[in-house]
Amino acid sequence: MNFTIDGMSATATYFQTFAFAFFLFTVALHIIFAAAVFVDASKRDTKLVGPVLWAAATLIIGPFFAAAYWVVNRLAVIEELRTLYSQKTELTNEEKIQRHREELNKRRSQT
């Protein structure tokens, strides 16, 4: 039995429907990721290019480029956090040195 719809087999019609649904899903996914990248990039100081170009590239290339955005910009955030932590550690060491000097001065003044 070979079913046909307007000269096309049922298998071909099913395949076209699946392909169209997959296309719509892919377009929706690209739009969602591009919007998410734009919103995130607008909130922070992005590396390399601005939020509009990050979003446009994500719209065209899709979730893979959203991953590239995350790597480039989130690793920069990790580096900033490391820098802040090291500065905090340095400030703590400077405070320790200052306290040590104060204690030495107190001892000298007591003797």
Automatic annotation (TrEMBL):
Keyword annotations of the record: Membrane, Transmembrane, Transmembrane helix
Membrane-crossing residue ranges in chain numbering: 12-39, 51-72
Identification of the protein by name: Cardiolipin synthase N-terminal domain-containing protein
Species name: Saccharophagus degradans
